[in-house]
Write a structure and sequence with these properties.
single chain; alpha/beta; Alpha-Beta Plaits; Rossmann fold; 3 domains; seven-stranded mixed beta sheet; 17 strands; about 30% helix; globular
Length: about 350
Amino acid sequence: MLTSLCIKTLKVYGEKTILLAKQLGLFDRKLKIEQKNSNLYIPLLREPNANERDALEKAIPKMKIYVHDFSVEILLRKTFVDVLTEELPPHLLASLPHAADFVGDIAVIEIPTELESYKQKIGEAILATNKRVRTVLAKASAIKGIYRTREFEVIAGEAKTTTVHKEHGCVYHVDLSKAYFSPRLSSEHKRVTMLVNEGETVIDMFAGVGPFAVQTAKQHEKVHVYAVDVNPDAIELLNKNIAANRVVTKVTPILGDVRKVVHERLAGIANRVVMNLPEKAIEYVDVACEAIKPAGGIMHYYEFTNAPDLTKASEVRLVEAVEKTNRKVAKILASKTVRATAPHTWQVVLDAQIK
């Protein structure tokens, strides 16, 4: 047993609390989250500072910083954090990111300003502790432009941004500098795929390299997916992924502005639409409603929110936007937090039945 600080929270807030603790760099991966009755005990690396505690208290009702006896998980190998704990000045350890995103053989990490002079050391530590990684990229800009791309800096390993990523039995050719792709949405790709019924027509309105479209087509025998994107580089990669996963007859890639594409080619044909453009999806609700069959269908709507009640505020916005198109939300089938994207900011998804 090991006595450690933790967040004590109700199980219903568990996913949200874990995401926020990771985002704040507080979550201790060496210890196992434990449950007792309706409470979860989420282990912490250190005591939250005043700003972190404030963020937790605002986002998580009735949470407490608590001392708990945890069962110790045995680590089979060192993580890059373990290595850097021994090499970085102690006063900088609190700023050290505790996780990287892994896309194929590329690791992607965000380097805080105060660790800028240590970025090569961080990159080398990631290479040393993850044998399948060949390149470590540091985020060098925010996601920007209509193509949703960002700049990267190679801080260790091979100088490249292209790789092949495997996810749920599918393979994806990815170029992180040319088309958006996030491994953090893996479970969401799988969740939506499993909701699709045989015989459906699906429109992926912002398809990127195809993680929703390709997986849906590969999982189901009798579906057809129209995968639309305005980014020509994304469509080029999507074509490779359609061929690589042998779903050529079930996925139609379309290059163009989805508003124009739906109006001219895809109006009223969809049983289901996927709207994974969280920063601007609200502006395309009318397009999704035009795409859905007159009898109705399902909308998977994603957005960013920093509202205290998260999904409730998003539900209100979506219902109002749908009603402006003379359609209605018959029912919110599901609403959930997908991931934390910044302190106090979350990506959420709503599954809405449209009539």
